Amino acid sequence: MMPRLLSLLLLLLAGSPTARPAPPTCYSRMLSLSREVTGDFQNLQATEPSEPCVRYLPRLYLDIHNHCVLAKLRDFVASPQCWKVAQVDGLKDKARKLYTIMNSFCRRDLVFLSDDCNALEYPIPVTTILPDRQR
After folding, report:
1. Can you tell me the distance from the alpha carbon of 70 to that of 64, in angstroms, rounded to the nearest whole number?
2. Do residues 70 and 103 make contact, with C-beta atoms less than 8 angstroms apart?
3. pLDDT of the residue at 135
4. How far, in Å, CA of 8 to CA of 12, rounded?
5. Which among 61, 90, 111, 134 would be 20 to 30 A from 117, CA to CA?
6. Are 79 and 58 in contact, with CB atoms under 8 Å apart?
7. Using one digit for the tens of pLDDT, what is the confidence trace for 6-40?
8. Residue 17 and residue 20: Cα distance in Å, rounded?
């Protein structure tokens, strides 16, 4: 009786359905892809300094809450520099995908909080330095 009860318990535990995560929303997809594109661009600048064309690519810091990001993506994808560098081609494909998602599929989900185009050229650096205690 005990082995049968144990096997039934194991069967129930093994066959229990696992919780599936919710599918990504348009917003979460745009946010993750923008972070991925920005990170890939920074890695490209760090790993391909020998390619002179990489220096002349438009800066690519993306904030999907800034209205200027659409023009920024469009300019980056259309830039003629580095058309022979595979990493740049891959990055441009991701940027094109993000532009398409933002401009077509998820257009209604976008909420722009800013239209400061300079913020995309010269982003405010994130600091982790804690302020000094007042004495």
Report:
1. 8
2. yes
3. 45
4. 6
5. 90
6. yes
7. 565 555 556 545 555 656 788 888 899 999 999 99
8. 9
* 3-class secondary structure, 131: coil
Single out the residue of 88, 87, 86, 68 nearest to residue 78, CA to CA: 88
Question: Residues 102, 34: contact at Cβ < 8 Å?
Answer: no
Q: Which residues are paired to 66 by β-bridges? A: 114
Q: Which one, of 11, 119, 21, lies nearest residue 67 by Cα?
A: 119
Q: Determine the Cα–Cα distance for residues 38 and 35; give it in Å rounded to an integer.
A: 5
- Residue 110, judged by CB atoms within 10 A of its CB (0-12, 13-18, 19+), counts as middle
The DSSP-derived string for 8-67 is: HHHHHHHTSPPPPPPPPPHHHHHHHHHHHHHHHHHHHHHH-TTSHHHHTSPP----TTBT
Q: Supply 61's token pair.
A: 């810091």
Amino acid at 119: A
Q: Are 109 and 26 in contact (CB under 8 A)?
A: yes
First CA to last CA distance, the chain: 73
Q: Please give the backbone phi and psi of residue 134, each rounded to the nearest 5 degrees, phi first.
A: -80, 140
